[in-house]
Amino acid sequence: MTSGEQSSANDYVFRTEGLTRRFSGFTAVNSVTLTIPTGGVRTIIGPNGAGKTTFFNLLSGLLPPSEGRIWFKDREITSLLAYQRARLGIARSFQITNIFGHLTVYENVRLAVQAVHDGKANFFLPARRMGDLATQTERVLNDVGLSDAAGARAENLSHGDQRRLEIGLVIASDPPVLLLDEPLAGMSPTETHETVDLIQRISPGRTILLVEHDIDVVMAISTTITVFQTGAVLAIGTPQEIRANEAVQRAYLGELV
Asked: How far lies 47's CA from each of 23, 50, 61, 189, 213, in Å?
């Protein structure tokens, strides 16, 4: 599916039309018209300053556009705030790990699970509620491979485990769409391998939008790749198509060859 292509609500998760964001005269995202199909790992790549994270912030509602429109499935969401988009099933992680360091891994996930069901985080619950929350918390911990670390304080985890915990907090709501902004940043090779495995485990039944700089990982796990350059879309295609694209090769100085 190519940039600007029209499709039914069942075919895409996001569609943008002329999406633009300016900061004091600097255009970070420049009139992007893009359709992001449903399902798979949809990766956005590009050099620093290409507009990738700003584009994520526009999709998730952290920033309003200067111009343009955004649709999520069959609904226009241009004016919706971030929490309203989250309620539609759009979940987002960040470049900087966002967890409660003084709480245990289990407590972090339990509060995320509880917030989904109660709309708030509260340690003081009736006994009848604790069983359901415990079951769901254990499921999330198992999904992200942190069951053995449930009792550890989050601040004492390795960087890779902290990033996986953050993904656990994000998937506590079982979102159909997950935006991951550079989830592998700062990881060792072992941590990278474990986190890639996690992304692949949680991808079935979801659409994962990924911003990532590790080209080897991008080529290995992506269903499609969108290349940004100076705030605009340079190319869209499968990993094989992107690797063979001469314009992309020039932009990356041969890194993809």
From this structure: 19, 6, 23, 22, 8
Closest among 248, 246, 247, 196 to 222, alpha carbons compared: 196
Lateral strand order in the sheet of 224-229: 90-92, 177-181, 207-211, 40-45, 224-229, 232-237
What's the Cα-to-Cα distance from 111 to each of 132, 164, 201, 216, 221, rounded to whole Å? 13, 16, 23, 35, 31
Quickly tell me which residue has 């971030």 as its tokens.
82
Write out pLDDT tens, residues 88-138. Answer: 999 988 655 678 899 999 999 998 888 876 544 454 455 445 567 889 999
Contact (Cβ atoms closer than 8 angstroms) between residue 209 and residue 59: yes
How do strand 12-23 and strand 67-72 relate by DSSP bridges? antiparallel
Q: Which fold has domain 1-89+175-257?
A: Rossmann fold (3.40.50)
Please state, as a whole number, how many other Cβ atoms lie within 10 Å of the Cβ of residue 223: 15
CA 52 vs CA 102, 144, 162: distances in Å: 32, 26, 23
Domain boundaries, the chain: 1-89+175-257, 98-173
CA–CA separation, 4 and 91 (whole Å): 24
* Mean local confidence (pLDDT), 194-201: 92
